[in-house]
Amino acid sequence: MLRALVLMLAVLAGVKVWTQERLYRDGARDALLLAYRDRAIAACQMSAPDSPAGRASVAPASLPLWTRPSSVSLSIGRSSAPVSIWEINNELWPARFKHPHVVLTSKDHLPYEVCEYDVIEGRAYLTQL
Protein backbone atom coordinates (compact mmCIF):
# COMPACT_ATOMS: atom_id res chain seq x y z
CA MET A 1 0.00 0.00 0.00
CA LEU A 2 2.75 2.46 0.92
CA ARG A 3 4.74 1.50 -2.17
CA ALA A 4 1.74 2.30 -4.40
CA LEU A 5 1.31 5.68 -2.69
CA VAL A 6 4.98 6.58 -3.20
CA LEU A 7 4.81 5.49 -6.85
CA MET A 8 1.66 7.58 -7.37
CA LEU A 9 3.29 10.65 -5.79
CA ALA A 10 6.36 10.19 -8.02
CA VAL A 11 4.17 10.02 -11.11
CA LEU A 12 2.25 13.13 -10.05
CA ALA A 13 5.50 15.00 -9.42
CA GLY A 14 6.76 14.00 -12.88
CA VAL A 15 3.52 15.18 -14.50
CA LYS A 16 3.75 18.49 -12.62
CA VAL A 17 7.33 19.13 -13.74
CA TRP A 18 6.50 18.14 -17.34
CA THR A 19 3.45 20.45 -17.38
CA GLN A 20 5.39 23.40 -15.99
CA GLU A 21 8.18 22.88 -18.52
CA ARG A 22 5.67 22.64 -21.38
CA LEU A 23 3.83 25.79 -20.29
CA TYR A 24 7.10 27.71 -19.93
CA ARG A 25 8.36 26.65 -23.38
CA ASP A 26 5.03 27.43 -25.07
CA GLY A 27 4.87 30.83 -23.40
CA ALA A 28 8.47 31.67 -24.31
CA ARG A 29 7.87 30.60 -27.93
CA ASP A 30 4.71 32.69 -28.18
CA ALA A 31 6.42 35.72 -26.62
CA LEU A 32 9.39 35.51 -29.01
CA LEU A 33 7.12 35.11 -32.03
CA LEU A 34 4.96 38.02 -30.93
CA ALA A 35 8.00 40.23 -30.32
CA TYR A 36 9.96 39.41 -33.50
CA ARG A 37 7.36 38.42 -36.13
CA ASP A 38 7.02 41.93 -37.57
CA ARG A 39 10.79 42.46 -37.60
CA ALA A 40 11.24 39.12 -39.37
CA ILE A 41 8.66 40.02 -42.02
CA ALA A 42 10.31 43.39 -42.64
CA ALA A 43 13.79 41.86 -42.86
CA CYS A 44 12.58 39.14 -45.23
CA GLN A 45 10.93 41.75 -47.47
CA MET A 46 14.19 43.71 -47.55
CA SER A 47 16.16 40.55 -48.41
CA ALA A 48 13.74 39.55 -51.17
CA PRO A 49 15.30 39.24 -54.62
CA ASP A 50 13.14 42.06 -56.04
CA SER A 51 14.23 44.54 -53.39
CA PRO A 52 17.00 47.03 -54.20
CA ALA A 53 19.40 45.08 -51.98
CA GLY A 54 18.55 41.76 -53.65
CA ARG A 55 18.78 40.26 -57.11
CA ALA A 56 16.58 41.81 -59.80
CA SER A 57 16.88 38.86 -62.20
CA VAL A 58 13.90 36.93 -60.78
CA ALA A 59 10.44 37.57 -62.16
CA PRO A 60 8.27 39.41 -59.58
CA ALA A 61 5.33 37.02 -60.12
CA SER A 62 7.39 34.10 -58.80
CA LEU A 63 8.44 35.87 -55.60
CA PRO A 64 6.79 35.13 -52.26
CA LEU A 65 4.98 37.86 -50.41
CA TRP A 66 6.48 37.72 -46.92
CA THR A 67 3.70 39.82 -45.41
CA ARG A 68 1.46 36.73 -45.63
CA PRO A 69 3.67 33.71 -44.89
CA SER A 70 2.17 30.22 -44.95
CA SER A 71 3.74 29.37 -41.61
CA VAL A 72 5.66 31.13 -38.88
CA SER A 73 7.70 29.11 -36.40
CA LEU A 74 10.60 29.43 -34.00
CA SER A 75 13.74 27.34 -34.18
CA ILE A 76 17.14 27.27 -32.56
CA GLY A 77 19.90 27.53 -35.12
CA ARG A 78 19.91 28.31 -38.83
CA SER A 79 19.76 25.06 -40.77
CA SER A 80 21.34 26.61 -43.87
CA ALA A 81 24.58 27.62 -42.12
CA PRO A 82 27.46 25.47 -43.46
CA VAL A 83 28.86 24.37 -40.09
CA SER A 84 29.22 20.95 -38.49
CA ILE A 85 28.63 20.46 -34.78
CA TRP A 86 32.28 19.64 -34.07
CA GLU A 87 33.55 22.89 -35.66
CA ILE A 88 33.17 24.91 -32.46
CA ASN A 89 35.85 27.43 -33.48
CA ASN A 90 33.95 28.40 -36.63
CA GLU A 91 32.52 31.92 -36.46
CA LEU A 92 29.14 30.66 -37.76
CA TRP A 93 28.78 28.01 -35.05
CA PRO A 94 26.60 30.16 -32.72
CA ALA A 95 24.30 31.11 -35.61
CA ARG A 96 23.91 27.44 -36.54
CA PHE A 97 23.42 25.96 -33.08
CA LYS A 98 22.59 28.69 -30.52
CA HIS A 99 20.74 31.70 -31.99
CA PRO A 100 16.93 31.71 -32.04
CA HIS A 101 15.43 32.13 -35.51
CA VAL A 102 11.95 33.09 -36.65
CA VAL A 103 11.26 30.90 -39.68
CA LEU A 104 8.80 32.14 -42.31
CA THR A 105 7.69 29.73 -45.02
CA SER A 106 5.99 30.71 -48.26
CA LYS A 107 4.24 27.87 -50.08
CA ASP A 108 2.78 30.05 -52.82
CA HIS A 109 5.15 28.83 -55.53
CA LEU A 110 7.45 25.88 -56.14
CA PRO A 111 10.20 25.65 -54.96
CA TYR A 112 9.11 26.71 -51.48
CA GLU A 113 10.86 29.78 -50.12
CA VAL A 114 12.06 29.88 -46.52
CA CYS A 115 13.25 32.98 -44.70
CA GLU A 116 15.14 32.49 -41.43
CA TYR A 117 15.40 35.66 -39.34
CA ASP A 118 18.24 35.57 -36.82
CA VAL A 119 16.95 37.30 -33.68
CA ILE A 120 20.45 37.97 -32.31
CA GLU A 121 21.97 39.33 -35.54
CA GLY A 122 18.77 41.00 -36.77
CA ARG A 123 19.34 39.61 -40.25
CA ALA A 124 17.25 37.49 -42.65
CA TYR A 125 18.53 34.54 -44.70
CA LEU A 126 16.58 33.25 -47.71
CA THR A 127 16.71 29.63 -48.84
CA GLN A 128 14.63 27.30 -50.98
CA LEU A 129 13.23 23.88 -50.16
Break the fold down into its secondary structure elements and pairings.
Blueprint: H1 2-47, E1 71-76, H2 93-97, E2 100-106, E3 113-118, E4 123-128
Antiparallel strand pairs: 1-2, 2-3, 3-4
Would you write up a description of this structure?
The protein is an alpha+beta fold and 129 residues long. It has one domain (2-128). The protein has helices at 2-47, 93-97; strands at residues 71-76, 100-106, 113-118, 123-128. A 4-stranded antiparallel sheet has the order 1-2-3-4.
Name the features.
129 residues; alpha+beta; 4-stranded antiparallel sheet; 2 helices; 4 strands
What's a concise summary of this model?
With 129 residues, this protein is of the alpha+beta class. It is 40% helix and 19% strand.
Radius of gyration, whole Å: 20 Å
Number of helices: 2
Number of E-state strands: 4
Question: How much of the residues is beta strand, in percent?
Answer: 15-25%
Total count of domains: 1
